[in-house]
């Protein structure tokens, strides 16, 4: 149903197969003002944030009125403790030669946090928008603060060391972004960010073709966050974008609003955790499609999950960090009926809350799809001398076991630096290998298939 746009392939996410229903949402959105009321359906605590109009009159980032052209699925948030919502906005056109060349000459890449090699860490790339040439230091300060806020949330906090953080300095002609402070404000910026996207004040859209052009400058972007230079609350999630550069999805957030960090965390629930939304729209009615692919929603009730050993059954009955016990609560994946979610109110339903236990498990697994529990400080590509120290970098609590010629030894247990000699490699002129296996023993990941992501073995050849 969702139309793709040229340039960046769009993955068909199938959140409970909402195709036909989405058409109704689009119609509702097109109808304008009534949208907040008609879509809320999730407790009624939502402030209607839509206002009639045709979008901010920005030259670069205006949200055109709805047309039949390609659409882009986005998720947005009306207030810091709200349930998210989603809608479709017009997709940007493919960049022309002049735009490409402007970006080619811009976008200095700065390393802000380096915990290990690019291949062994999850690389978070922040791109600034609405920062002029003289404001790039402010941008770097804002990135540091935003990452501090994001990485204060579990399970980021525990796994902070699994990430590298990069900043890409995009120089904007003007300071600030469209739609800030008010509807009519227009700004010329590097990435075309603007509030009031689709007539929704807090929906902070960006030209994701430009995001891709900037993000491709990073060595390996696993997660892309666009920071708009603003104190105004807002952001967005572009979760069906699969980038040629390797990242899944884009999150946007305002730089100087602490609550906007929650938007980023929620969006990474989709991009890194592959989690479904746990909210719903009343008008979606009863779900009658196939079992959803996401790990945190299901057609099955608690007893069925347990009996069939499906989805989050290993967590049922456990007390969850977002409150209450894990079970199967009615509503999720946009449907109020016919779909169940693991807990009452996780961050995948309401901002400001924690991930639930199945969500944490999925996030930790996601972190490790882009990073390893250990990385080689001594390169594995070159032979090591028998008397020379071999060193690995390991996350906190990671258990280390060493091997000689493929056989495990008790020597050097949990030691990150060892010599082949101390491990028992003989000086017999023969070829030998030493290896080390790192395993994260966390109890937060129970699924054996995911636990495999939490172990890594490195091997060195020892010079004879
Ligand atoms: Zn979401």
From TrEMBL:
<feature type="region of interest" description="Disordered">
    <location>
        <begin position="1"/>
        <end position="21"/>
    </location>
</feature>
<dbReference type="InterPro" id="IPR024079">
    <property type="entry name" value="MetalloPept_cat_dom_sf"/>
</dbReference>
<feature type="compositionally biased region" description="Low complexity">
    <location>
        <begin position="50"/>
        <end position="64"/>
    </location>
</feature>
<dbReference type="Pfam" id="PF09471">
    <property type="entry name" value="Peptidase_M64"/>
</dbReference>
<protein>
    <recommendedName>
        <fullName>Peptidase M64</fullName>
    </recommendedName>
</protein>
<dbReference type="InterPro" id="IPR019026">
    <property type="entry name" value="Peptidase_M64_IgA"/>
</dbReference>
<feature type="region of interest" description="Disordered">
    <location>
        <begin position="50"/>
        <end position="89"/>
    </location>
</feature>
């Amino acid at each position: 149903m969702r139309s793709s746009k040229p340039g960046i392939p769009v993955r068909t996410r199938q959140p409970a197969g909402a195709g036909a229903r989405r058409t109704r949402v689009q119609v509702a959105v097109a109808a304008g003002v009534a949208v907040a009321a008609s879509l809320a359906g999730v407790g009624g605590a939502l402030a209607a944030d839509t206002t009639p109009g045709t979008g901010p009159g920005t030259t670069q980032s205006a949200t055109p009125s709805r047309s039949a052209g390609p659409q882009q699925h986005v998720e947005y948030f009306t207030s810091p403790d709200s349930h998210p919502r989603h809608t479709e906005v017009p997709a940007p056109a493919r960049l022309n030669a002049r735009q490409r060349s402007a970006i080619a000459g811009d976008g200095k890449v700065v390393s802000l946090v380096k915990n290990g090699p690019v291949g062994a860490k999850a690389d978070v790339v922040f791109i600034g928008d609405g920062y002029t040439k003289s404001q790039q230091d402010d941008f770097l300060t804002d990135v540091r603060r935003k990452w501090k806020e994001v990485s204060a949330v579990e399970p980021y906090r525990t796994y902070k060391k699994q990430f590298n953080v990069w900043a890409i300095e995009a120089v904007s002609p003007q300071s600030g972004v469209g739609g800030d402070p008010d509807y009519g404000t227009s700004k010329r910026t590097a990435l075309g960010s603007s509030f009031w996207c689709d007539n929704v004040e807090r929906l902070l859209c960006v030209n994701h073709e430009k995001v891709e052009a900037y993000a491709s400058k990073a060595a390996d972007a696993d997660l892309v966050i666009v920071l708009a230079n603003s104190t105004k609350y807002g952001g967005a999630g572009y979760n069906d974008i699969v980038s040629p550069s390797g990242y899944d999805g884009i999150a946007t957030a305002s730089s100087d609003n602490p609550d906007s960090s929650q938007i980023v965390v929620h969006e990474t629930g989709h991009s890194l955790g592959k989690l479904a939304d746990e909210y719903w729209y009343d008008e979606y009615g009863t779900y009658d499609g196939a079992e959803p692919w996401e790990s945190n929603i299901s057609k099955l009730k608690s007893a069925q999950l347990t009996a069939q050993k499906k989805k989050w059954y290993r967590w049922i009955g456990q007390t969850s960090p977002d409150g209450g016990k894990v079970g199967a609560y009615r509503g999720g994946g946009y449907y109020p009926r016919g779909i169940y979610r693991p807990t009452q109110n996780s961050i995948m339903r309401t901002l400001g809350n924690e991930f639930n236990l199945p969500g944490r498990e999925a996030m930790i697994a996601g972190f490790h799809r882009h990073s390893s529990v250990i990385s080689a400080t001594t390169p594995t590509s070159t032979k090591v001398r028998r008397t020379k120290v071999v060193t690995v970098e390991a996350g906190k609590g990671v258990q280390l076991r060493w091997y000689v010629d493929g056989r495990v030894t008790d020597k050097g247990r949990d030691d990150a630096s060892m010599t082949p000699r101390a491990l028992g490699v003989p000086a017999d002129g023969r070829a030998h290998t030493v290896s080390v296996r790192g395993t994260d023993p966390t109890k937060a990941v129970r699924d054996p298939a995911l636990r495999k992501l939490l172990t890594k073995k490195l091997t060195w050849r020892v010079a004879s």
